[in-house]
Amino acid sequence: xxxxxxxxxxxxxxxxxxxxxxxxxxxxxxxxxxxxxxxxxxxxxxxxxxxxxxxxxxxxxxxxxxx
Length: 67
Known about the structure:
The protein has one domain (3-66). The protein has a four-stranded antiparallel β-sheet. The chain has helices at residues 46-51, 53-66, and strands at 7-10, 16-21, 27-34, 40-45. Strand 1 (7-10) and strand 2 (16-21) form a beta hairpin. The protein is built from two helices and four strands, in the order ββββαα.
């Protein structure tokens, strides 16, 4: 997905937290964490977030703290 279709939040370690649009064209269709070189480290789609929000948000914060 092109960068213009994502919200990107810089992380302290140089990585980014990215969020893309969902089916309703609202943000939250997916989340991903990228390292400082822009390589995707992890990806979660909206179904994963809906089905196990505690696991996903915990993993997002753990990866964000490292990247």
